[in-house]
Structure formats: C-alpha cells, structure tokens
Specification:
Blueprint (H helix, E strand, L loop, with lengths): L5 H52 L5 H52 L6 H108 L7
Helix pairs in contact: 1-2, 2-3
Length: 235
C-alpha cells in the first residue's frame, strides 16, 4: 500500500473542504451578482436625480450655487456606491485566491496519486509552503494597492465631474446672458416702435383738429356773410 506523506494528507483534506464549500461559494457568487445589480439600479436613480435637479437649478437665479449643491449630493451617493463595489470586489478576489489555492492542492494530490513511490514528501511540502507564501504575499500586495488606485480613480472622476459641471454652468450662464441681452434689445425696439406710433398718432390727431377748426371757421364766415347780405326788394 503506498505511503501517504504529509502533503498528500493536507491536499486530501483541502479537496474535501473544497467540495463541502462548493454550494456556499455558488451562493456567495449569486449574492454578489444581485448586489451589483442593485448598485447599478441605485446609480441610475442617482444619475436621473442629478439630471432632474440640474434642470431645476437652471430655473433659479443662483444657478451655480444650486448646481454645486446637487452635484455634491450626487458625488456623496456615488462614493457610497463605489465603496460597496470595492467591498464586493475584495470578497471576490479573496474567493478567487482560495480557489487557486485549492486548485494547486488538487494538482498536488493528483501528482501524489500518480507517483506513490516517490519519497519527496518533505521537499514537496517545503516547496508547496514556499510557493503558497509567495502567492499570499503577492495577493496581499495587490489588495493593499487596489484601494489606493480605487481612491485615486474616485478622486479623479470627482474632479472631472466638478470641472464638467463648472463648464456647463459657465456655458448656461452665457446663454442666459445672451437671452437677456436679446430680450432687452427687443424691448427697446418695441418701445421705440410704440413711441414712433404714438407720435404719428398725435400728429394725425393734431392735423384732424386743425382741419376741424378750419372747417368750423369757414362755416362761421359763411353764416356771417349770409346774415350781412341785404334782403331783396319786394316787387
């Protein structure tokens, strides 16, 4: 009967634990999928609120202050969603690391079964432990660097959003100033037109009054002449 070394025993135990935990990992994967779907829905709702609030801000007098307020609220919501995503990603990385470790253990187990006469247990165990240590150190380094990269990425995204918001606010303010200037010119032109029409009306009224006075004067003169004329001598 082949002799089982320490590595083989450990590998068999790991394989048994892997089979026992398979259903639990499937459940965790489903939960992560559902959590990511929920985050996606909440992000869409947050973006929709931002767009609606920006439209409302453009109707206010202090457009820039209003936009800054609603965008700060949006950035707060986005950071919270991003933190949840990072937590899900970290959990997924940990499971992948465990799966890779179990896969190596299974390979080692297959090797031991195919070569039962090799007496390299101590060497194989040392090599396996060394490789596992190196892998764990690399995984720890990746995990430690990931939050920094993610935090930097979030800060850059927030800065870009604020810059875009400032540009949109400046553009909108310029459009509003242009509309106000156009409206002002329109009102001035309208006032000038009204003034010209009033002057023309007044001139016509004055001319009509002069004609009426002239007509009344002629009528009075004719009436006076008729009264002054002698009566005809009776025959």
């Amino acid at each position: 009967m082949p002799r089982l070394n320490t590595v083989t025993v450990l590998v068999l135990l790991a394989a048994s634990s892997l089979a026992h935990a398979a259903s639990g990992k499937t459940s965790n994967a489903q939960e992560r999928t559902q959590a990511r779907a929920q985050i996606t829905l909440e992000r869409k709702d947050s973006e929709a609120r931002l767009a609606n609030n920006e439209k409302i801000c453009y109707q206010h007098f202090a457009v820039t202050d209003c936009l800054q307020k609603v965008r700060r609220q949006y950035n707060t919501e986005e950071r919270a969603l991003r933190q949840r995503e990072l937590a899900i990603n970290a959990q997924e990385r940990d499971e992948k690391t465990a799966n890779q470790r179990d896969a190596r253990a299974n390979k080692q187990s297959d090797f031991e079964r195919k070569h039962p006469t090799l007496d390299g247990g101590a060497l194989n165990q040392s090599d396996l432990e060394q490789r596992q240590k190196e892998h764990d150190e690399q995984a720890a380094q990746r995990s430690s660097h990931a939050p920094k990269r993610n935090a930097q990425s979030i800060a850059e995204q927030q800065q870009r959003r604020e810059q875009d918001a400032a540009r949109r606010a400046t553009s909108q303010a310029g459009k509003m100033d242009s509309k106000q200037r156009t409206l002002q010119r329109h009102n001035e032109d309208r006032a000038d037109s009204i003034s010209e029409a009033q002057e023309e009306y007044d001139a016509k009224q004055e001319a009509a009054q002069r004609k009426l006075e002239a007509h009344e004067k002629r009528m009075k003169e004719q009436e006076g002449k008729r009264k002054a004329a002698p009566l005809p001598v009776p025959q």
